[in-house]
Sequence to fold (492 residues):
Amino acid sequence: MPTPSIDEFFENLSVNIVKSPRSVNDTKEHDLSTPPTHKDSKRFDVVKSEDGRKSSKSHHFLKPNPMVEEAFEALKRSVVFVRDFVPSGLAYLMNGDPEIVKNFLVETIQLQSWVKTSDKFNLSSAAMPASFKVLKPDGKPEIICPDFGECAIGRVSPVDSGFWWIILLHAYTKSTEDSSLAESPECQRGLHLLLTLCLSEGFETFPTLLTSDGSSMIDRRMGVYGYHIEIQALFFMALRCSIVLLKNDDVGMEFVKQIKERLRALSYHMKRYYWVDMKQLNDIYRYSTEEYSLTAVNKYNVMPDSLPDWVFDFMPNKGGYFIGNVSPARMDFRWFCLGNCIAILSCLATHEQSIAIIELIETRWEELVAEMPVKICYPAVEGQEWKIVTGCDTKNTRWSYHNGGSWPVLLWLLVAACVKSGRTATAIKAIDLIEKRLSKDGWPEYYDGKLGNYIGKQARKLQTWSVAGYLVAKMMVENPRLVSLVAFEEEK
Fold:
């Protein structure tokens, strides 16, 4: 059966791509202080040209039509993952169609109140579902069946789902300029539960969140247990969003106080211990060990001999990034795309660090982007290390899936980070690269190979979030103000 063209695919979802020439300013860092509204989300009629192909009289945007119900019906045909829906939700918001996003946010937060039991153990009442199915029994009302991790690979509860829900709620509120949904009792209760869980006191001496392997987008064993950059960056972003979303009452203000205290500690910790550039790498290389005093420099007793050989060649003279993980006697120097892009958008990274991250990507383009944007992490683990880290996972072989695979959905995060940092030319370069193959290849989930030039061996095609990630990236380049839906400005 031939792969449907992109026009046929979007027709099924009641969405169409239309394109136009781009006009950009590559040197200007865009002002995010004025939020975009529906006035920034233009609607354009798609017409047929003489050869019968769809074209547009104006810029690249989604086709205007009564697509909300049809698109929601399409979503119901399969499992809906919370994290996967986010780029789709952003595409709807940017196209001026917020109703489906509102429905998703409401349905998802209602699932939070379910009693969650796995092997006779009750999960936290704050836990959000990883995904849900909509079933239609014959002659009976629809049933929504959530999965809180009890059906997932490894049976791990998703930590990132709640953060993504908060981020999408913030984007919805900013786009619609309507806080009524965020201030509804259901959403406020959900926020309170999530924040209580994340801000609770424990035995930790770090402000970061301790999580297991498989609790985020990398949902299989990949050695990201501990204090993974992806979780910490999303946590930081969600906390900043929550300050805006919480009601201005006694309970809300108490949460805001706790959040600001945590943000200060988390920001200091991440900048101090996760950030690596040439100078910091050299300092780590020269670390002393076994320092017991309060004035210790090597506070986590990291052994310099544990530094991987590849990182010395990978680190450019200009550039830097937040490494994957820091814990006692352990630094994971792998580069993770999502965590570093969210660090830029949330201002976890300073302006200088944001520029350094983009400069690293530009300098190491062949390693991090190559032929298909963009690597989920770099480098891949292989050989004996692969056996130990992944447990001999045949899906996460070297340069495949979560082990150095290339994921088109990450394009929107890369583009947003580039546009926010004033590097629009880099964003366009990534978009131009992805346009050469993604549609022609049938919109696969991920690509394999060191260069990302092979369709993933188990990659599903016609992936909604691959499509949505591309659409969001295109719209943000066309209208940089849209980046403010998912970005903050650095506090003065």
